[in-house]
Design brief:
Layout lengths: L3 E5 L3 H7 L4 H22 L3 E8 L7 H17 L1 H6 L2 E6 L7 H13 L6 E9 L1 H14 L9 H5 L12 E4 L18 E4 L9 H12 L20
Parallel strand pairs: 1-2, 1-5, 2-4, 3-4, 5-6
């Protein structure tokens, strides 16, 4: 099993449009889907689940859709509060939440604080997040801390990222049919295994997630290395 699964939850708008609904209906249904996948992660021993909820590029969407998404994250966290605490899910936010209305920002920070001791699953919500922006933020923080250029290492940069202390994603899933990473976990996904699914996110069931896990388990991960063949058995002659 992968220790860390990351998901680009694509296809919410198309799911709604195919049903003659407004795009917001797709986002709402997609947000509900996270519960099932988080529960599956706990059942299968996945330690970290990262979901791409709102990217820095999503600000270019229609204003009413952006406003809806701003409210959706804290709304769903509150709706799933009992599950989060019963299942001991730790909530972390990757990205800048200063854009949230004050009441929502306080609510998100409260649940992050209240779940800090939970240990069944880390649920990372990438919100107002961009992979390149995260790297720039990490480097700025290192400079601000007075780190000398010659002392900068990959490990030091990793510890300055939002995901500090967590394993890099082993498996990155993108639903909806497109096959690109869309500025998601640029630093962390260097050796992630990718799984692209044509299924629109609101239809991505537990069964579909299990198919992705099965596909992952069939792969050989080399991390740039050449596998060393086992020595031949000694002859009995």
């Amino acid at each position: 099993m992968p220790a860390h699964v990351a998901i680009i939850m694509d296809g919410n708008g198309r799911w709604a449009q195919h049903r003659g609904l407004e795009r917001q209906a797709g986002h709402r249904e997609g947000a509900r889907r996270v519960r099932d996948i988080a529960a599956a992660c706990i059942d299968y021993g996945v330690r970290v689940l990262t979901i791409y909820a709102f990217s820095t590029e999503n600000w270019d969407r229609p204003a009413d859709e952006v406003s809806f998404l701003m409210d959706l994250i804290p709304e769903r966290l509150e709706a799933e509060r009992s599950m989060i605490f019963e299942q001991r899910v730790r909530i972390r936010v990757l990205g800048e939440i200063e854009t949230l209305p004050l009441i929502d920002r306080v609510a998100v920070r409260d649940i992050v604080r209240q779940t800090a001791h939970h240990d069944a699953l880390d649920l990372n919500i990438a919100f107002n997040y961009g992979g390149r922006a995260e790297i720039v933020r990490a480097l700025r923080n290192l400079i601000r801390d007075g780190i000398r250029p010659e002392d900068v290492t990959e490990d030091l940069v990793s510890r300055a990222m939002y995901t500090a202390g967590q394993p890099d994603p082993d498996l990155l899933i993108r639903t909806g049919g497109d096959q690109r990473s869309s500025n998601f976990l640029v630093w962390q996904s260097t050796y992630s295994e990718y799984f692209f699914s044509p299924i629109l996110w609101p239809d991505f069931t537990r069964d579909a997630f299990e198919d992705a896990l099965a596909d992952f388990s069939s792969r050989t991960r080399r991390f740039g290395r050449v596998p060393v063949a086992a020595p031949a058995a000694a002859s009995d002659a």
